[in-house]
Amino acid sequence: MISPYTGWTREHWAALADRLLLAARAHASPAHARVAFPGPPGGYGPDVDALEGFARTFLAAGFRVAGEDGRDPLGLMEWYAEGLAAGVDPASPERWPRLDEHDQAKVEAASVALVLHLTRPWLWDLLPARVREQVVDWLAPAVGAAYPPINWVWFQIVTEQFLASVGGPYAEEDIEAGLALARTFERADGWYADGPERSYDHYNGWALHLYPLLWSEMAGRDPDPAYLARLERFLDDAVHLVGADGSPLIQGRSLTYRFAAAAPFWAGARAGVGSPGLLRRAASGIVRHFAERGAPDRDGVLTLGWHGPWRGIAQDYSGPGSPYWAAKGLLGLSLPAGHPVWTAVEEPLPVETGDFTRVVRAPGWLVSGTRADGIVRVANHGTDHARPGARLADAPLYARLGYSTATFPLLSGDPLDQSVAVLDEDGRASHRTGFAAGPVSALPSGTLVGSSRWRARWGEQGPGPDHGYSRPGGELRDGPEVEVVSAVRGAWEVRFARLPAERDARTSASDTRTSASDARADDPDARADEPGGRLRLGGWPAPEGGPATRVAGGPGLTEQGVAVAATPLAGRTLVPWCATPGPAEPGRWYTAALLLGEGGSGGEPPVVKDDVITWPDGATDEIPLPA
């Protein structure tokens, strides 16, 4: 059997793509230029929504036809050619917003350019000369334009590279400057930051690793060997971040793109790096995970949500057409049926071969996967989509202390799940964005250890648009410093937390200022002796009836409870917590054991005595706590 783990073959993928594409036609305008899926308009308005609906389904159509070497029984190229002609015609009632009218058109232009390249013999070469001229005119404002210094740089590079290939206007200096900027995003072990901040999420795979490969093909160049090495190294981490049920890690913005998370695995296959059977296992697992859980829905539509509809998952830039960036996860269909990625036998994911622990250095993650329940967990001590010392409220998708393939962070309210918070006099929980990241490492026993510290702050997000990360300008009030050390083994984490004593806090801040050369640390004039409050440790937000979630508080953490909230995974999500009954004692280490999933040894928690942990499997570790 070629697919012993997922049961999915290329035929399953093709059927899914065809279903999505045929369903989209029911929401198209008469000339097909606009595909307006049902639902309230997104933050950029219905014109942009409809452009997204065209451009993003166009990606799926392009992959489908390219992988069949032009065979097109659904008439996809003819259908999209008609829409393309109307969209770029300035006199058409269905015309698209231009790149110099709305920035989001710059994003969609890259998808249009990419598909025109991939399907050139069956679409571009057959277009009337006037339509080709109007396509060039619509794309041309990319030249010399300003693009945000994040993954968007690739949209300009790809668009201008296509223009260059068809004799249109382009600026070589734009492409070279964009490539140079993209190199500044490079981080350890093949990872990228999406800009200058600690911005680590799925954009690593579905943008920052994907576009360099496709651009090199468009430019007629062999991929840079250094890029291929980075891609291969990144994929070695990425396969460890997929759960046995196919769920990708639930972390970071734009999660409504869903199975776009499969894109980097197809990029590896297309580039010839990584094991084809393992890459297809990861990609098929991700897509099947959603296809079997309501995405697409009964009508073949990808709604704003995760499994089913959940409007709260959307950012302000998300509209009804936005979820179709999931088409990037269908990139494998651009590879022919005889490609090794389709003919190799599936190999098991790391979480299916046994328990593992893994340090992922760039985002500061301690990763633990357990075979018994198929869950992958991350203890986060390096990612908050901000800089060290930033005075911001937390973004739930970035600043939590833990993420997994089986839990969804609470998307509103002050931190509760996967948090260590100081409660103020009104019971409000503090935030941790701007923390100083400590080292992440593995002990000889395999137990992982990481740490971070921050100035606790109470307050709100700023007033700007919600793009999934923290917004500046909110009203914030400083509190005491908080320091946390995580020790991770199997399904358990032992979390050490303290409010450093006044002298320790000042020394800690001084150490940060001298060691963090890329950003300022906490304000040296900030008071280290702000009065503390109760200390609360929140556990995993697990769906009721799903994996077990538990917090076992140690000495001093005698108050406990379980909060109930709603998430895209379940209407009833359980969040256990423990807390001190009164203000936390400065300088004292408090400990709690946090469980998600199968804990082993009858569910008994680790035993902690001072800095020594005895784990349920019998291993013993002495944890290197800060002095």
Short summary of the structure?
With 627 residues, the protein is of the alpha+beta class. The protein has helices spanning 10-25, 46-67, 76-87, 104-118, 129-139, 153-165, 172-183, 203-208, 210-218, 225-238, 263-271, 276-291, 340-343, 350-353, 502-515; strands at residues 356-360, 365-370, 375-380, 402-404, 419-423, 436-442, 448-459, 476-489, 492-498, 534-538, 542-543, 549-553, 559-567, 570-579, 590-596, 607-609, 612-614, 620-622.
Strand arrangement across the biggest beta sheet: 6-7-8-9-15-12
Distance from N terminus to C terminus (CA atoms, Å) equals 56 Å
Uncertain segments are 507-529
- The amount of helix comes to 25-40%
Question: Mind describing the biggest β-sheet?
Answer: 6 strands, antiparallel
Radius of gyration over C-alpha positions, nearest whole angstrom: 25 Å
Report the sheet-strand fraction: 15-25%
**Which structural class matches the secondary elements?**
alpha+beta
Average of per-residue pLDDT values: 94
The total beta strand count reads 18
Q: Which term fits the overall shape?
A: globular
- Number of helical segments with 4 or more residues: 15
